[in-house]
Structures are given as structure tokens and as C-alpha cells.
Amino acid sequence: MDLKYLAGVLKYVLSTVFSIGLAVFLLYHIINGLTTDVETATIVYTTQEEVTEYDAYIFRGESLLYTSPGQAGSINFLCEDGTKVAVGQEICQVYAGSTSEEDSVTLQELERKIKQLKNSNLDENVSYSDTQLVDTTIFDSYYTLLSRMAEGSAGYAMAKSDDLISAMNQRLIITKHVENFDDQIAALEARRQALVTSSGTVAETVTTDRSGYYYADIDGFEEIFSSDKIDNLTLDEFDSLVSSAADMSLETNAEGGKNCGKIVTEYNWYIGVGITTEESRSYTEGYSYTIIFPYNSDVRISMILDRMILQADDDRVVLVFRTNSIPEHFSFLRRQSVQIVTDTCEGYKVPISAVRIVDGVQGVYILEGYTVQFRRIDALREIDGYFICRENDGSSEDADMLELYDHIITSGKNLYVGKIIS
Fold first, then answer.
1. pLDDT of 13 strictly over 60
2. Which residues of 282-303 are buried (b: 16+ CB within 10 A; e: fewer)?
3. CB 224 within 8 A of CB 244
4. CA-to-CA distance for 320 and 62, rounded, in angstroms?
């Protein structure tokens, strides 16, 4: 066999294969360079918050109200919880006459159910997308209830069971099983009124001797978490207050009068939060912080850091926040979780996956009309797969910088400035 001939054939085959491969390679890159398979997202301005969750304890200045000594009978409350009252305003009426012990118990149970259902309704100004927050409240209430029952705190356990039921009812509203509990509340109030008016004549009308905000129920912590203890509060005293059980002996006074509610006499109220010394470095006394109350439908209240309580031999700090804001339908449950906003970052929200480095500059590709352009970004913070980027201030120095409502390219191949996307 002619070796020279075979070598020529092999050379021809190899050159043919190479030519075909080169053609395929060039065709692939030409087609790939003309691709229009890109995805875009519009740049929006966002505010991202860093929050830390703690247990908080509410301190308020409250004055208890009582009927006359020995006065028995059904009580008809004339004010809703949280009503602002003036000196001399009528708070409730005590009915005496044909009231039986059974009717008195029934009336108290009706009052409790009405309050429970009112707490079950959601704030109409707040939207809910999932059950995460209310599920946390249900979990916390359930285990706190078990703990308090084990300690023998029957009064507190009863109040906590109402909170648990209210949270479970709120979950029914969020999951669209019911719209609200207005009809049930109206029916119970009608039944209560019928029972009260059938109890006989009005034996006493209780009025206020001071102005403030009226609340019908007491929780037994009125003299424990009192705002007059704030100024001289120490870490040891705070621990002692936190471990205190509700004092339900306040349901009657020394003279034998029956409790018929309380007046919040001070406009300022406080929360105490226990944290570590290391955590306390994020806070500054006298500064205002946004406090979120998940138990109260995530209501946000601006509170001033009034005091930072610490002592040399302890690595803990108690933060005392102060406010005079009282949102409508706010529950002053003495212990509840709060979220403190420790930092806020504002700017453009940019997916990290869209960020590129071009000629040593960090930025993103955008689609301007049908043409790919590159825009510089100034990343301030990384949060959950996104950069929060500085806003373009419109100056000449920011001419090449990303702007609000730019269409950034989040997915695409072989991008370069000037590429046409059809």
C-alpha cells in the first residue's frame, strides 16, 4: 500500500473535520450573539430594616376604681376600654335588687366573652398576608399558660387563655374562614344589657375623681409594673418584678369595695427590655426608636430610650423606652414580644445575581430601548440576596450610575455595551 497516498487521504479527512468544526463553532457564536433571551426587572426604591426581637414588660401609672364598701350587684359598664374620661365622668352603674349569684356570674362571663371577641377582630387598617405572626402569638400564649398554671397563677392563666382564644380567632379571619366577629359581639351585648336591666334599680353610679384613660379589667400587675418605679429601678428589682405573680387580691379594696376598672392617670408609659451588654452598644440613651408590637397587629410606636440600667457586676442591661402614644385598641398585656428597629437602609434594590464587574467597575447591565448599556452601582448593604444601592442624586458625578425605574438585565448571555436586543 502506498504510504504517501494514505497520508494524503488522512490529511484531507482531518482538514475537512477541522473546517466543519470551525464552521459549527462560528455559527454557534454568531447565533448566540444575536440571542434575545434576556430577562429584566425594574429598579424600585426600598427601605430595609434590621429588627431584633425581645420580651418586653409594660409599666403604666394606673389608679384602681371601686364601688362603695359592701355594695353588691351587677355592674353595667358605661365606657369602652381605652375611652378618655374627665373628672366626674360616669364610669359604671351598680344594679341591686333581684340579682342572683347565678346572674352575677353570667354577667361576668358575658363581659369576658365580649372583650375576648373584640380582641379577636383585626385592625381594619392593617393587611395580613400570612399567619406567621399570629401563630407565634398562639405558641407563646399556650406555653405561657401552661407555665402559669403550673405556678398556680389562676387569675393570670385565665387572662392568658382569653389571649390564646383571641389569637386563634384572629387566625380564622386571616385564613378567610370568617370575616369578623361583629354579629357575635352585638348578640352578647344585647344579652348583657337585658340581664343588667332586669337586675333591679341602680344602687350606685361610679364616677372618676381624675382624668385619664379608662379600662374595665385589671390584670393584677397594676401595683407591680407601675411607672413610679422606673426612676429608681435596678437590675435586681427588674428581675424581681418579672418573676412576680399577678396580685388578684386587688379585686376588692380594704374597705370591701368591688373593683370596677382603672384609670390610666399618666400619659407616658414605658417598656422594660432585658438585653446583654454587647447588644446594648447598638443603642443610645435619648434617641428615638421604632418599636413594633406583633401582639397588637404589628402596630409601630416611636419610643424614646429613656434609661439604660446596668451595674458593674452584671453583663446585662435593661433598656427603658418611653412614649405617650396610645394607639386605638392597643392591648397593654404586661409581657409581650416586641421588635426594635435598630437600623434602616434605603436605596435601590438590586439582585446580586445581576451585578457584574466591567473594567474594574461594579455595576449592572440595563436595557435602554433595545440596546444594552452598563450602569455603575454603589452598594450600601447586602440583604437576602439583594444589594441596597445608593440613590442617584442627579449630579454629573452620578451620570453613569443606575437610576430609579431603569430596566436591569437579570438574565442573559454574552452581554456587552451596545448589543442590540430585538
1. no
2. ebeeeeebebbbbbbbebebeb
3. yes
4. 18
pTM: 0.63
180 alpha carbon, distance to own chain's centre: 21
CA atoms within 13 A on the CB side of 233: 28
CA dist 296 → 56, 166, 180, 252, 282 (Å)? 13, 12, 17, 30, 25
User: How far is residue 247's CA from residue 302's CA, in Å, rounded to a whole number?
Assistant: 31
> What are 39-59's pLDDT values in tens digits?
899 999 998 888 899 999 999
pLDDT for 207-217, tens place per residue?
Answer: 998 999 999 88
Which residue, 380, 382, 402, is CA-closest to 393?
A: 402
Which residues, at least 6 apart from 387, have a Cβ–Cβ distance to it below 8 Å?
A: 349, 350, 351, 352, 355, 377, 379, 380, 381
Share above pLDDT 70 across residues of the chain, in percent, rounded to a whole number: 83
Q: Which residue has the higher pLDDT, 167 or 419?
A: 419
pLDDT tens for 356-389 read: 999 999 999 999 988 999 999 999 988 888 999 9
The per-residue pLDDT for range 172-206, each reduced to its tens digit, is 888 888 888 888 888 888 887 777 777 667 788 89
Give me the phi and psi of 60, to 5 degrees please: -140, 155
- What is the distance between the alpha carbons of residues 107 and 125, in angstroms, rounded to a whole number? 32
Grid cell digits, residue 24:
459549527
| Locus of grid cell 430601548 | 369
Q: In this structure, what are the phi and psi dihedrals at residue 20, rounded to the nearest 5 degrees?
A: -65, -45
Map residue 181 onto helix, strand or coil: coil
**Residue 78 to residue 94: CA distance in whole angstroms:** 11
Please report, for the chain, the start and end positions of each structural domain, with discontinuous segments joined by +: 1-32
Nearest to 137 by CA among 110, 156, 113, 119: 119
Of 9 and 363, the structure prediction assigns the larger pLDDT to 363
